[in-house]
Design brief:
384 residues; alpha/beta; Spore Coat Polysaccharide Biosynthesis Protein SpsA, Chain A; 2 domains; three-stranded mixed β-sheet; 47% helix
């Protein structure tokens, strides 16, 4: 019992230390002023698999940028779609000379379908800066303009803000709970970049130099990992130490994306995200393990309360520490992302997040998850 309490105390202190480390990273994000580069050119790559309901609105937003059309091209990779995705994308060709479409009918064995698709787009790209977004996203007209101001000569990658947009008819409590959880991933990404210790990323709003991608060998061995076309790439570029990575806090470059429509879809998505964590760099795995271990101990402590009621105050104390860490990080984080309205959902979401994180990581790493109508394990060697 005494040893258990010692472990709990040590883990809670390590958790708070990790949270404070990330908080300091958030405070350092706005250290550099905008650096306009009026001659910088972009290649926007959009991988789309069965996105007939979204690809049209996505392309309208991407093709409506404030910068000159001669400074950017848009490459849609129609990845094995069986619906009207390709047809809808091609309907834009007659009025958009800066649009290209690649059609993929088959993915090579042992390679993640998403990584294969975006790699084809990158190979076709003619411009210096590659920009990712997804087919279910909407970007503002000033998106590329804002990204441009972040690319100093030593910057190799820029991560931007992505928020969920409310879908008419969705239960608002369900939307807000998953929105605050999704936001927490973005806040951690921003904080880690600010701390010069990139952990995770989001391909909904990600830009990088093609030269940096080539210099690190593209996705390398990580191309077999089903997920992680964002996280694993940001870590590879960071590890090279040849480029700086910046987080774009400018709302002119903020992207909106669609939430998961159901609890099941949300869980499958989080399992997919959890599946890639074991492929992170050693330092990143160690850091995230501090938080994960604390979460696991919290669950063990809670379950132990059913057998030893004296542990209930201990669980309550530890959960308050978890909440303290989240408040330290998420209060400024909700301000940074323009989502102060989600703050009332911090506490209820914290109760849901605890089992969600632990289960999604364990089942994502050791089990299966659904994505785009298919079932996968974490690497393509085990894909079904």
């Amino acid at each position: 019992m005494t040893l258990f309490l010692i472990v709990l105390s040590a883990s809670s202190l390590a958790y708070l230390a990790a949270t404070l480390f990330l908080y300091n990273g958030l405070k350092r994000l706005n250290a550099l002023p905008p650096q306009p580069h009026p001659t910088l050119c972009f290649s926007v790559v959009i991988a789309a698999h069965n996105e007939e309901q979204n690809i049209g609105d996505c392309l309208k937003s991407v093709l409506g940028q404030t910068i000159e059309r001669c400074r950017y091209e848009v490459i849609v990779v129609d990845d094995r779609s069986t619906d009207r995705t390709g047809e809808i994308a091609r309907s834009f060709l007659h009025e958009c000379p800066n649009l290209s479409i690649i059609t993929i009918t088959q993915t090579p064995s042992g390679i993640s379908p998403k990584k294969h698709a975006v790699a084809q787009g990158i190979a076709l790209a003619r411009n210096e800066i590659i920009v990712f977004t997804d087919a279910d996203c909407r970007v503002p007209p000033t998106w590329l303009e804002a990204i441009c101001e972040c690319f100093g000569p030593d910057v190799g990658m820029v991560q931007g803000i992505t928020n969920y947009v409310y879908v008419q008819g969705m239960n608002k409590v369900f939307f807000n709970l998953q929105a605050i959880d999704f936001l927490s991933h973005g806040v951690v990404a921003a904080a880690a970049i600010g701390a010069n210790f990139p952990l995770n990323s989001n391909a909904n709003n990600l830009a990088f130099r093609k030269a940096a991608f080539i210099a690190v060998g593209g996705y390398g061995a990580a191309r077999s990992v089903v997920s992680g076309d964002d996280d694993l790439l940001v870590q590879r570029i960071s590890k090279s130490k040849a480029w700086k990575i910046r987080f774009m806090t400018d709302f002119r470059g903020a992207v909106e994306t669609l939430p998961a429509p159901t609890w099941k879809a949300l869980f499958e998505q989080r399992k997919r995200w959890g599946s890639k964590t074991v492929h992170y760099n050693v330092r990143q795995i160690f850091f995230l393990s501090i938080i994960f271990f604390f979460y696991c101990l919290l669950i063990v402590c809670f379950l132990s309360c059913f057998y030893k009621a004296a542990l209930l105050p201990v669980f309550g104390y530890l959960f308050l520490i978890k909440l303290l860490g989240e408040v330290i990080l998420m209060v400024p984080g909700t301000g940074l992302f323009g989502k102060k309205g989600l703050r009332p959902f911090l506490i209820p979401a914290s109760f849901i997040q605890l089992p969600l994180v632990v289960c999604s990581v364990v089942l994502g790493v050791f089990g299966k998850f659904g994505w785009k109508g298919q079932t996968f394990k974490r690497t393509m060697k085990s894909a079904l």
